[in-house]
Design brief:
- This protein is mainly alpha-helical.
- It has eight helices and no strands.
- The protein has one domain.
- It is globular.
- It starts with a helix and ends in a 10-residue tail after the last helix.
Length: about 180
């Protein structure tokens, strides 16, 4: 009986993680940032947008314990499994994947810090500068970073207003980019 309950709990948690991750992917693939804000529609640009939306969830639940902390870790694990799979689909061999995952993980965790500091300070300009540095480092000017920063701030506010129970049941509320 206990094994069955444990199996059910695991399946339920897996379903929540899958729903949350699917919503992160859907938000990261909204066409406006790519079409109107010049976010590069490349594997690295898509990684950046996935990282950004995962950051928003992790930032929202950063001080939580228990189920939300576990869910955050499982969604992060799913993200890196997806990155691993994507690298293999791009033709990177078994020997090269771990090295690239390690580099992408360093990039991801660096973004958690820079985006988090800007959001915590309510500093749109610092957030836009961090986004430019990470998404369009080669661009001398990227005015659209301000649009993306505004969207990120709105998404942060929407997630901050969401009850913990919604997240625990697999519901996220990312706004539409405008």
């Amino acid at each position: 009986m206990l094994q069955w309950l444990s199996g059910t709990a695991r399946r339920n948690r897996r379903a929540v993680v899958d729903r949350l991750y699917a919503q992160i992917v859907a938000a990261a693939r909204q066409p406006v940032p790519y079409a109107d804000w010049q976010v590069p529609d490349t594997p690295l640009g898509r990684f950046e947008m996935l990282s950004l939306h995962l950051f928003l969830l992790l930032h929202r639940i950063r001080d939580r314990k228990g189920a939300l902390a576990d869910i955050g870790q499982e969604v992060t694990d799913q993200f890196f499994k997806d990155v691993d799979h994507s690298l293999r689909e791009l033709g990177i061999g078994d020997m090269g994947v771990p090295k690239r995952i390690k580099k992408l993980a360093r990039m991801f965790y660096g973004r958690l810090s820079s985006y988090g500091e800007a959001i915590d300070a309510g500093d749109d300009a610092a957030l836009a500068a961090a986004l430019k540095r990470n998404l369009r480092p080669e661009a001398e000017e990227w005015d659209e970073a301000n649009h993306l920063a505004s969207y990120v701030m709105k998404a942060h506010e929407a997630l901050a207003a969401a009850p913990d129970e919604d997240i625990q049941s697999g519901k996220l509320a990312f706004p539409e980019p405008a």
